[in-house]
Description:
Elements: E1 2-5, E2 16-19, E3 22-25, H1 30-43, E4 48-49, H2 56-60, H3 65-81, H4 109-115, H5 128-147, E5 152-156, H6 177-188, E6 197-201, H7 208-214, E7 220-227, E8 252-257, H8 263-280, E9 284-289, H9 306-318, E10 323-327, H10 333-348
Parallel strand pairs: 1-4, 1-5, 5-10, 6-7, 6-9, 7-8, 9-10
Antiparallel strand pairs: 2-3
Helix pairs in contact: 1-10, 5-6, 9-10
The chain binds 6-amino-N-hydroxyhexanamide and zinc ion.
Amino acid sequence: MKNFYNHLHAQHQGKVEMFRGALVPCFEVPARADHVLAELQRRQLGAVLEPQTFDEAALTAIHSPRYLKFLATAWDQWVALDAANADKDILPSVWPTRTFRTDIEPDNFAAKVGLYSYDAGTPFTSGTWVAARAGAHCALSAAQAVLAGDRAAFALSRPPGHHAGADFFGGYCFLNNAALAAQHLLDQGKGAGVKKVAVLDVDYHHGNGTQAIFYDRPDVFFASIHGDPRTEYPFYLGHADETGTGAGLGANLNLPLPRGTDYATWSQALETALAGIAKFGADALVVSLGMDTFEGDPISGFKLTTQDYLRLGERLARAGLPTVFVFEGGYAVDAVGVNAVNVLQGFTSP
Length: 350
Ligand code: 6XA
Ligand code: ZN
């Protein structure tokens, strides 16, 4: 399996995030990707490649031009306000909730940041745009490899993507890598017979961004297994009654589970998700591969073990679809490499 590694990921390195009422050191750290890379290399599980570059159109297929322009210029705007800002990350602090307008982009920088975000846990740093863009290119490159005939490919990148919407960041995510890969498979895959794509999100947290992007689309099926949003981030989306809208009705499947869920129960939800994907008739699969379902994860509540990830990989392989894996969450830093690579190993050599 080819692995597209975001060699610029460490340029995104947040200092602190708002967590349970306090500013705490960021959980989403560069060491996460470093550990996955080291484990891939240790097991020699395929070539580690730099991504191709893609033009703006591959990004505007998912994200609004207004949002992309903000991401590309945010850091310069921040430092132009005050040179001392260069030592501080941008952290959102004000948002337009119900009854406010979002059609007018404010001139005030803090207000602009709030327009394009939804939480105070996602710092924007000097290298965020460069890292996120290269990460998107990893996801697009992985999709490209699958279109060229590879059975599967892995986008090893951070920051993650599944919480990012068409025009907002949050949950440590800026560009929706899984959505970009899915759209690329559709846009470039006609010749290869790709007419319908499924995104399976196995991160602990509901992929609200991916769901929102594809909610009215009949050509992308979104299935997600995640902590119940009544108690778990991102709280305001991810319930079982969200089944799609308009032409996309029936193409969204949420499988929320309680804290404490182990693989015996989790894997039943996986069967439900894969049955939905099979019924939909997907020609290709994108897996939002979050490893924060691990029993040792510091901010999550499921109980999957290191061995379970081998079984997950084996089961995904049996779905029989060309598959793009996209790295998402997972904060038990010392275990994240072994766990992620176990999924890939289970998939390639069961
Ligand atoms: C709140 C927790 C964000 C969760 C990020 C994540 N700051 N998403 O892992 O998949
Ligand atoms: Zn997560």
